[in-house]
Write a structure and sequence with these properties.
There is one protein chain. By secondary structure, the chain is mainly beta. It folds into 2 domains: 112 residues, Thrombin, subunit H (Beta Barrel); 99 residues, Trypsin-like serine proteases (Thrombin, subunit H), CATH 2.40.10. The strands form 4 sheets. Strands 12-13-15-18-17-16 form a 6-stranded antiparallel β-barrel. A 6-stranded antiparallel beta barrel has the order 3-4-5-11-9-8. The radius of gyration is 18 Å and the shape is globular. The N terminus is likely disordered. Keywords: Disulfide bond, Hydrolase, Protease, Serine protease, Signal. GO terms for molecular function: serine-type endopeptidase activity.
Length: 265
């Protein structure tokens, strides 16, 4: 009986409440309802964001094998309505992918240079998502929205949060502050052998103290309130307080609206 009470208490901790942890904030099931995670060949691989009943926004790198050619549709599963990567609940559903829409300007990275040019992708699902309080679409920014330096944004994560690349079974929210691209490029040039190609359509953000620099999985959305402003495409190994690199959404709004079927949105 005591064992059951302990198990129930732990379940409530991770699902029903928000708790402070070392690398971010654990979120309850109703929080971040627009976030999904992608399983590639049954293994958790990337994050994504719900745009509408049929479309998921993620990184193009997430659906490429060795950054060369797209995955087969049968290899990808999209999980919605859950804040855990290793347990099921009444709100979770799994969707198959009908089509992979990769931006035509996408340039895969190589071993020494991370291009991130148009590293953006929209997955068209094989059936409609059922919305609820646990599953909702994100808002898109306006055409001319600009994210200023020092602005605080958040990103949801299921990904690694420490030196050992431990993958948490629960979702966390990580707060990040926007930094200028010159500072961002300077860090990567000085401390790593991999130099990200940081241009105007890329955004850099550094985790706040106590939040992990590698918590943001590739493909996850960088969020300003309930609006997605960027897609995560690159971060350091865990434990290094390095800026994360994102692709800004407003540069690709026309393409996104085209895929969603509404140029007049």
């Amino acid at each position: 009986m005591n064992i059951l009470i302990i198990i129930f208490s732990l379940f409530s901790l991770f699902v029903g409440t928000k708790q402070e942890i070392k690398h971010g904030d654990i979120v309850a099931a109703r929080e971040i309802p627009y976030q999904v995670y992608l399983r590639i060949n049954t293994i958790y691989s990337c994050g994504g964001t719900i745009l509408d009943e049929l479309h998921i926004l993620t990184s193009a790198s997430c659906v490429h094998k060795n950054d060369i050619y797209p995955l087969d549709l049968s290899e990808i599963e999209v999980l919605v309505g859950t804040n855990s990567t290793n347990s099921k609940n009444d709100f979770m559903d799994i969707y198959r992918v009908h089509k992979i829409n990769i931006h035509n300007d996408f340039v895969p990275s190589n071993k020494t240079t991370k291009s991130f040019l148009a590293d953006i992708c929209i997955l068209t699902l094989s059936r409609y998502i059922t919305f609820s309080e646990f599953v909702k679409p994100i808002k898109l920014p306006n055409d001319y929205d600009i994210i200023n330096t020092n602005h605080i944004l958040t990103v949801g994560s299921f990904g690694p949060v420490d030196y050992e690349r431990f993958v948490p079974s629960y979702r966390i929210r990580v707060s990040q502050v926007v930094i200028n691209n010159i500072e961002c490029l300077g860090f990567w040039y000085k401390y790593t052998l991999v130099t990200p190609d940081i241009m105007d359509e890329r955004l850099c953000a550094r985790p706040l103290p106590g939040h992990s620099a590698c918590s943001a999985d590739n493909g996850n959305g960088l969020i300003d309130n309930d609006t997605i402003v960027a897609v995560h495409v690159f971060s350091s190994r865990c434990g290094v307080n390095a800026p994360n690199v994102y692709v800004e959404i407003h540069y690709y709004l026309q393409w996104i609206r085209y895929i969603l079927g509404s140029l007049l949105h």
